[in-house]
Amino acid sequence: MSIVTHLIGMKELTTDQIERLLDRAEYWAERPGVQTDVLKGRFIANLFFEASTRTRFSFEVAQKRLGAHVLNFIPETSSTVKGETIYDTIRTLEAMGVEAAVIRTKKDGLLTELASEVSLHLINAGDGTNEHPTQCLLDLLTMRQQFGRIEGLTVAIIGDLRHSRVLGSHLHALPKLGANLLLAGPSSMMPPAQIVPDGVKKVDIDEAVQTADVVMMLRVQLERHTDALFVSKEEYHRAHGLTLERAKMMKPGAVIMHPAPVNRGVEIHSDLVECEKSLIQKQVTNGVAARMAVLETVLKGSDKTWESSLATANA
């Protein structure tokens, strides 16, 4: 596997790199709560310029389980309020000996711009409406645990597709791994046609729910809409949500997923969030393992001794 020095997006990863990350994530998922010193003495900064609960805390738990020193950046009390650019902030951290930065930002493509200008390792915790690669990896891990494979699965992603960085990552990853991807949602929330790979089908929600092995619902991201919704939450739920009636149409063995946070009663009925078919809490659990795998791979990927031990552990 070629060395992964940054995790900018799933678009840049090969199928082999994705599978190796999933293998390592599975290794950590099978060892919940285990502490290690694999990143002992390494400094990692978390820079979140957008609100986050699951991703931010999941990264911090992963970092501490790996033995790293964690620095949590607070924009409101930083020099960015004085006009400092993110580039200058990163360069300052770099000069202090910080080796990796986990970044969430509203700006699409920011990490791609930074990667050619800085030396520390960059990990994308969500950039605008572009990509959210670690969410994608934890979703893939959850699917693989449930079905024993990803190749051949039919995955339906439903909801606010235009504004979803989770979809942005899955558009690249799922086809690479041999899954069949279906998209459904309001016509005003569909992604631009030019970013949808060949072979990905757009269908109505009932067809998506009836035929998918994985029904993944997405939140309506009101904070990214320039105009208010023209329908009520109740109308949206009836037309485009996973209602109790639609859930009864799911195939035997099919599962419900959601990257969260969940708007209960909007994209999914409240009773379905924690039902037998739901893997939503399992996704949250797997977030720590997936992010441990990413941090370990990015920070230790050029260490040949670690590569050798990794191969042995995964054998």
UniProtKB/TrEMBL annotation:
GO MF, one annotated term: amino acid binding
GO biological process, one term: 'de novo' UMP biosynthetic process
Keywords recorded for this protein, A-Z: Pyrimidine biosynthesis, Transferase
InterPro entries per UniProt: Asp/Orn_carbamoyltranf_P-bd, Asp/Orn_carbamoylTrfase, Asp/Orn_carbamoylTrfase_sf, Asp_carbamoyltransf, Asp_carbamoyltransf_Asp/Orn-bd
Reactions this protein catalyses: carbamoyl phosphate + L-aspartate = N-carbamoyl-L-aspartate + phosphate + H(+)
Residue ranges annotated for the Aspartate/ornithine carbamoyltransferase carbamoyl-P binding domain, each copy included: 6-145
Subunit structure comment from the entry: Heterododecamer (2C3:3R2) of six catalytic PyrB chains organized as two trimers (C3), and six regulatory PyrI chains organized as three dimers (R2).
Name by which UniProt lists this protein: Aspartate carbamoyltransferase
Gene: pyrB
